[in-house]
Each structure stands twice: as C-alpha cells, then as structure tokens.
Specification:
alpha+beta, Porin, 3 domains, 8-stranded antiparallel β-barrel, 6-stranded antiparallel beta sheet, elongated
Length: about 575
C-alpha cells in the first residue's frame, strides 16, 4: 500500500506553571531567572494529501490525547494548520541528509508557523503576545499596551517570552509500509486458524527537531521582524520574516511498528460493534504520539545549552560554562546526523579555538553574550545547525621530523600555547585573533656525521637545543602558517678527541602545516641559522680557541635549511 507521509503540529503547555508578572521596568526578570519551570512545547503538523488513506489518518489528529505517563503531566493541546508538503528523499527518511531536512523545514516555513502561533501573527504580519496571556504563562500589567513598539517594551517582551519559545520541538512523523492485516498474514504465511485480527499495521518514524530560538535568533526576530501594527516599515518586516531561514536542530530519531486492529467477528475478544476501516486508520496519530514520550524535560545531551553556532564570520556561540571560557581553548563543532540504523549520532565537523571573552551588550535588545572562535580544522561550519563542545586541550604540540641542510639532524620539538596565559590582555567583547596560537617552543636534534680534521676523517656528534616563540595563522580550514624566532646552543664532540665545541646560534623562519586529521599535521618549514660564536674547549672545559671558525670546519652546517615532519596536538 502506498506509503503515507505525515507531519503534524501540536502544542503541549503545562498548566501547572505559576503566573509570571511581566514587568517592563525590570528587564532581568525572565521566566528562567524567576525560577519558574519552562516546559517543553511540542509541535506536530500533518501533510494535507488528497489520498483516501491519508485523509482518514488526518481525521485522527482531531482527537489526539496525551497519556498520563507523558513527561508533561498537565497540558493544553492545540493543532496548527497542515502545511501540505513531503519529506525529501521520501523513499528512505533514515538516509535523508541533514542539511536537506533543515532546508525542507525552512522551505515549508515550519519556523514561521511556530513563531506565528506563539506570537499570534495576524494577516497583516503584525504580532502580539496574547497567546501567553490566554495560556496563563504570565500576566501583564493592565497598563502595558501590547502594541508598544518601543525598544524598551520589545526588550521586555523578548526577555519574558524567549525561554518559552526556545522550548519548542517539532516532531515529524513518517508513516511507512501501511498494510492490512490480511496482507501481513499473507507475507508471514500465517495459518488460517491464527488469522484472528483485522485492521492495519505501519512503521512510524519520528524525527524530533528542536526549534532553536536562541539569543541571537530571538534578537534578530524582535529587531528585524517584529511589529505590532504601527511601524512605518511593516511591509519590509513582513517580507523579511516570511523569507527568513529559521534554525532547527535534529535531536533524535525513533522508529516503531504500530498496529490498529480488532478481533474478527466471532472471536471471543471481538468487539460488539466492529470499527470501520476509517476509524482504524484514524487511530494511527494517537499511536504515533504515544511513542514520542522519549522526549525528556531536560535538554538533549547532544545539544549543550546555548553552545549552538549562531554566526560563522567569525564563528560565534554562547558558552554557558565559565570553566570553558578560557582564551584560546579548543572546541569541537558537532552536527547531529541520522545513521543508517535510523539513530541520531553527533558527527564532528570541525575544530575551533576561542579568541574572545563575551560581554553583555549595552543595547538591551542584543544581549547575546557570545564568544568568538577561529577555525583550525575540519569542514565548512553552518550557523544554527551545529554546536560546540569543549575538547580536552593540554595546550601542547609534539613534533617529530628531520632537518635538512643548515643544522641538519633528526629533530623533535615541543610547543606550549603561551597564548592561553594571555587572556588577561583581552578586552571583553573584543576579538584578539593576533594573540591566539602564540607558542613557546623547545627544539632539539642530534646528528652524527664524518668530517675531515687535519686532513684525517673524524666522526663528530652534533647535539643542539633551542628555545623560541612562534605564531600560527589559519588562512584556510586545512592549513596554517606562521613565523618563528629562537636562540639555541649546539655542542659538538668527536670520536678521536676529548675536545668540546660550543656554538651559539639564532634561528628564524616560517612553518607551514597541512591537516591530516584535526590533531595531526604534516609540517614543513624553512629555517635560517645564524651562527653567533663558537668556542673550542678541552675535556676540562678550558677554553682553547675563543673564536673557532665553525663554518670552515663544518661546511654546510649554517645558513638555509628546511624541515619536514609530523605534529601531534595534545
């Protein structure tokens, strides 16, 4: 039987909430700060297909009820109009690609429907917040006019209502493989005596999205789209709202087999009055809703609070944990994806590092407190569909490779992110990219080689170490480059003498890295070594020659060189 796609929208509101006093004179008094529990609100909507079976199923949405074991014990149920559209890649929703799903939701104005319901949008495009009064979510002062478009009034409305709207979820139901019990019995080769039921069976897949009405999104809504009927630019705001791409985040996917059946006439458990096929099909919405009780009152573990990416140039997100707000910390960027098994799994998309501290804006309508980041690895980051999680970050890089020419030798280097200690120099609210990825490094190398001394060959061992500073820049997501400068010391010994040669040198150059994975890079560098002075000493460290000619004795061990190796970020 033809597969039926349904998406339906309902609102569940907790009636046990205490009424909130909406005080425009106190912008700090929001539902969150007042300690009132903000409920999760679930929206569902049904495709208005013209097929007969679909129409029978749609009838069932008119009589949906929520069982007593649903996470929200008290509720008010409301339905939104059917949008009339289908899922992309409808033959296999589990394999539907996440960006296509989000694009599909936006193409069909799902976010606009949710906001229109919450803020009671009228035909002229104006909004008010009468829905909150009717639902008794809070009580406004009698003298406060809902048509007031002043910055002060809009800020007060935003602060009071945003937490409720941000608790909205959209559930997409995909009813697949709807068959009669007779077809099921035929497929499973059930014997005649066991064919005791009539009715329908279907697979229902529930895709649960969070409507992400975070601080930056709500700020844009109230600054660019909101008006209550008396603004001069109403037409512009109306069009902007209708064309907006509003963010959704995929939270989870669930799949169940549901059956709407009854015993056949003559069976011991048969009902006195057999339900019609229309009535049996109309049971599917109720059965589907009963299977979304996996939505918990807490935020999903894959979506850490306000850490959703809200902008990409630069990358910005709101980080709630003060422990995570250290300068030049490393964060992973995740996107929830649907696996082949139909489960939602977070997939790391990119890696970023923080380059600012948040600051509360002086403009009350833009109080977003976001942190800025720069990208060091991964793929393209998209706003409003990806989120950040802090990574383990020791602030240490380890390099192993080889230096050719110059002070040639197998080379090891340890880098410490000195920039992590420079957060005190950053002005809150300002980005400080030039202070990021500043490192102190210690590099060492050891090389054995044969040179002629007094026209006789001798085996020499060169052991060097250097200390310096380096800085990385990230012009592309897959690579970085940066200068370095340092000071070092090399000791040279020979197999046929107890003498020791001590050489001071300066080094400088440029390093370039290409990502293999997010924390492993192929590093190449051009090095220039300047020998400052060389002192020859005997075995007792007495000076034999204060100005030993190093370049004449060891030709090629100065000047230009280059290195190649791998760097691991810990």
């Amino acid at each position: 039987m033809k597969r039926i796609l349904l998406i339906f929208t309902l609102i569940i509101l907790s009636n046990y909430l205490s009424a909130l006093n909406f005080n425009p004179g106190n912008l700090e008094e929001t539902p969150d700060s007042s300690g009132v529990r903000v409920p999760k609100t679930i929206f569902v909507t049904a495709v208005n297909s013209q097929s007969e079976i679909n129409q029978h199923i749609l009838e069932g949405f008119k009589n949906i009820s929520i069982s007593d074991n649903f996470p929200l014990p008290d509720h008010e149920l409301k339905l939104l109009p059917s949008p009339g559209f289908n899922l992309p890649n409808s033959d296999n929703t589990a394999d539907a690609n996440f960006p296509r799903l989000i694009s599909w939701l936006n193409d069909n104005k799902s976010g606009q429907q949710i906001l229109s319901k919450w803020y009671n949008r009228k035909s002229d495009g104006s909004f008010d917040f009468s829905e909150f009064h009717e639902s008794e979510l809070f009580n406004n002062h009698p003298e406060q006019e809902t048509t007031n478009d002043s910055i002060h009034a809009i800020s007060a409305i935003k602060n009071s209502t945003q937490p409720f709207v941000n608790g909205s979820y959209l559930v997409v139901f995909d009813f697949q493989d709807i068959i009669t019990m007779e077809q099921y019995y035929d497929e499973t080769k059930t014997s005649e005596e066991n064919r005791i039921l009539n009715g329908y069976q279907a697979t229902v897949k529930s895709l649960i999205f969070k409507f992400d009405f975070n601080e930056p999104v709500s700020t844009k809504f109230f600054s660019d789209y909101w008006y209550s009927g008396n603004a001069a630019e109403n037409g512009t705001r109306k069009k902007a709202f209708e064309n907006a791409a509003l963010p959704f985040i995929l939270v989870s996917v669930h799949q169940h087999i549901i059956s709407s059946t009854q015993h056949n006439p003559g069976e011991e458990l048969a009902p006195t009055q057999q339900a019609s096929k229309e009535e049996l099909l109309a049971n599917f919405p109720q059965l589907a809703v009963s299977n979304i009780s996996e939505i918990q009152n807490s935020a999903p573990s894959g979506l850490p609070g306000q850490a959703v990416v809200s902008d990409t140039n630069p990358v910005k997100a709101k980080i709630n944990s003060e422990a995570s707000l250290k300068f030049d910390n490393r964060f992973a960027v995740y996107q929830n994806q649907i696996s082949e098994a139909g489960k939602v799994q977070p997939r790391r998309v990119a890696v970023v590092r923080s380059m600012s501290y948040p600051q509360i804006s002086e403009n009350e309508a833009d109080n977003s407190e976001r942190t800025s980041f720069y990208q060091i690895a991964g793929k393209k980051i998209n706003a409003n569909e990806m989120y950040l999680k802090k990574m383990n970050d020791a602030g240490i890089n380890i390099f192993a490779g080889t230096t050719f020419n110059g002070l040639a030798s197998p080379t090891a280097r340890v880098e410490f992110y000195f920039s992590k200690l420079m957060g005190g120099m950053v002005i809150p609210g300002k980005t400080a990219k030039n202070l990021t990825s500043v490192k102190i490094y210690f590099e060492g190398g050891r090389q054995k080689d044969t040179y002629f001394l007094n026209e006789a060959p001798d085996n020499f061992t060169f052991t060097r170490g250097s200390l310096g500073f380096s800085k990385n820049y990230y012009p592309f997501r897959f690579m970085h480059w940066g200068p370095f400068i340092g000071y070092g010391l090399e000791y040279t010994t020979s197999a046929n003498s107890d003498n020791l040669l001590s050489t001071n040198f300066a080094e400088m150059g440029v390093r370039t890295g290409f990502n293999i994975v997010h924390n492993l890079q192929l590093i190449g560098s051009v090095n220039y070594y300047i020998l400052l002075n060389s002192v020859l000493m005997d075995g007792d460290k007495n000076v034999i020659n204060q100005d030993f000619n190093y370049t004449e004795q060891f030709p090629g061990r100065s000047g230009l060189g280059y290195s190649l190796g791998l760097r691991l970020m810990l």
